[in-house]
Structures are given as structure tokens and as C-alpha cells.
Request: fold
Amino acid sequence: DVTARHEAEKALSETNKKLEMTLSVAHIIPWRWNLTDNTIACESGRILNHMGLGKESDSNENTHIIRAEDYLHRIHPDDRQRIENAYRSLVKGELRTVRTEFRVLTPLEENEVRTDWIEVNVMVDRVGKDKKPVSLLGSLLLITARKQQEQALIAARERARESDRLKSAFLANMSHEIRTPLNAIVGFSGILASTDEEQEKQEYMSIIESNNTLLLQLISDILDLSKIEAGTLEFVHTDFELNELMREKENVMRLKTDQNVELVFEQRYETCHVRTDRNRLSQLMINLLTNAAKFTHRGSIRFGYELRAGQLYFWVADTGC
Reply:
């Protein structure tokens, strides 16, 4: 009566099918490394074919056998020493299990090379009479997609950190920039109240008005930062004369420019009517000119625009560092 044995074999077969299905779904490939003849036998050739590793003559339909040195040779040079050290520790009996990740290189056509990430879990399978391992048992998993996702997340995290740093620097810089027009407004308002000469009043009022415009622009920049982060920044296109805008920026920047620096708007065209977002263009020119003024203490700052192949190019040139 072999009923019990038959039931045991049937249960074992079912278990093997479930295990095979589980490994297939998880894309995990079991392997055994024979340390005696230095060959690796894999139960699937899918990943090994992906790596372009050829079969040994004693391979069959279910088992893909390769030379260990061929496999090790494919390991990325930056990872090879670490993997070889782990292998020696297993062979010497210093370690019983190892779990690690590394890169493998696969040569392609036209001298191209593909890099894949492999995750390997390995343990000592059998030992000889001298208590030294004679075979290793492990699993292999292709994790290239996971690594790409990890790298994308790391890059996104770094961009977020950089964005946060730049935002903090921007706000700190703005708090300093706001003081300049505020000081001018408060100071010249006091002088305006104490002077009787009409010409001086007009001059002080003009300075106050320019600083009011600058202060409003700075506050608008701060508000725009929130709009950019929320993705709600909009462009409002209007028609205006470009030379008038440039002259206006020239007058505003004279307050920020060192006395030893010549500020010049180089007007190359008599008129230039454009349709674009006037405020954004103003921000652009003010930012570039402010940067030039901060680092130019003598010489000149020149700016303007020119037409190239139907497009307008804006430029700022200075003699500073």
C-alpha cells in the first residue's frame, strides 16, 4: 500500500508549484553555486539571458549553468571588490549569509553598455569534511526599476531641499531689500515736510514715488513666490512702448547704483511697441540690474535690448566682478 507515499508526493508537488509561482510573480530566481567546479546553476535563464551570459554544455531545459568567473566579470568595477570580499568571507566560513545589491554590466551593440541593478541573498548550502563550504545557495532579483525610482525620489528630495534653501535666502534678501525703499520714503517724507522750495519738493516727491514703486514691486515679488509654489502664477499681456519701460528702470536703478558707476540704457531703436507681461519683464530687468549694481563699484552698467531674427534679446553688461 503506497497511498501515504503517493499523498506525500502529491502534497510536495503542490508545494513546489506554489513556490515556483510565488518566485515567478516576485521575479526571484533561485541558484546554487558549486564551489568545487566553480559553476552557478540557475533555475531560470531569464535574467541571465538578459545579461547575455551563455549556457554551459551540461545545462538543460530547467537549469541554466554558467561559469562563476563570467558572472563575476560582469560586476561593475566600483562594486566588484565589495562582492569579492563577501564571497571570500562565505568560502572561509566567516559568514553564513549575505544580502547585498550591486550593478552588473551587459555589453550591447555599437560598443554600448547597459547597467542593471541586482539584489542577491546567499547562504552556505553544504559544507565538506573540513567544515568549509562546498556550495552556496541563493536568490537573484533584478531591481533596476526600483533603483531608478529610488534615485528619482532622492533627486526630488534634493530639489525640494534646494528649493527650500533658495526660498529662505530669497525671503532673507527681500527683508533687506525692503528696508532700502522704506528708509528713502520715511527719510524724504520728513525732509519734504520741512522744506519750502518748490523745486526741492518736486525732487523729493519724485524720489518718494520711485521708492513707492520699488517697494510695491518687492512686495509683489514676495507674493509671486507663493503663487509659483501653488502653481497659480499668471501672465497678463498688455501693449506698451519698450523704451519707456527701460527708461523707467534706469531711473529706479540710479538709487541703487554706486556714485562711481555710470548707469546707461543703450537705446538702439527709436520706438519699439511690444505685447507681453510688463510686470514680469520689469522684474527680470530689475533683478539683473540689481545684481549688477551689487557687484559693480566703479566703471559702468549698461543694458538694453536688440532684435535678432525676429526675437527680442535683453542684456545687461557691467564692469564688476
In short: The first helix runs from residue 3 to 25.
